[in-house]
């Protein structure tokens, strides 16, 4: 089949009601029967889960599982920014005059990604990470820095896939999909954490209660299926760890880089 045909099928299936229906099934009690097969199919380490596999009440309950304490240590140097998720880096680099260039062959404007927020001006020449979570990964999202939540926004949108096919062949999925945007103020600078929904993501949820002040590694939100987090840093404020590149895999709490002295 041609790429245009696959694109058409994805367009037709990427409707919110499809994800809502899938989500309802994943939250049903009957779905717990699929947990062992799901874990086996995606190679999920069930021994890392906080609870025994039989204790999860639904597939969604298992998918949004917490891990056993200590499995994701937070980098000990408090001057370092840490990864908010377990993920693969599918985009990394400088933001150039408000443009994220060549994420799987496509460019994105910061203005569009942040839903034309007045804060966009802070990031026009900053730095970005695109972090993709596969179904195999741990799906809770943590704060990359210690700081205060300045602002948060829920942007309604589509639920296109954010995997290799979606990023490469669908039109600018990161800025067209549903998003939760959180701006966090650190002592040195501001960071935007953009949580991007995807096909079969029934929702993106903040933890409750959501504190106004976060510590590095503290839970912030979670996905109810595989998706993507985009991290944005202000102009001239951040330097990435030099060995990180496209395709690198990171764990929550792992060092991503540091704020620059100003």
TrEMBL record:
Pathway annotation: Phospholipid metabolism; phosphatidylethanolamine biosynthesis; Lipid metabolism
Key words, A-Z: Decarboxylase, Lipid biosynthesis, Lipid metabolism, Lyase, Phospholipid biosynthesis, Phospholipid metabolism, Pyruvate, Zymogen
Coiled coil (UniProt feature): none
EC number annotated for this UniProt entry: 4.1.1.65
GO molecular function: phosphatidylserine decarboxylase activity
Lipid biosynthesis in keyword set: yes
Stored InterPro entries: PS_Dcarbxylase (IPR003817), PSD-B (IPR033177)
Keyword Lipid metabolism: yes
Cofactor: pyruvate
UniProt protein name: phosphatidylserine decarboxylase
Taxonomy of the source species: Bacteria, Bacillati, Bacillota, Bacilli, Bacillales
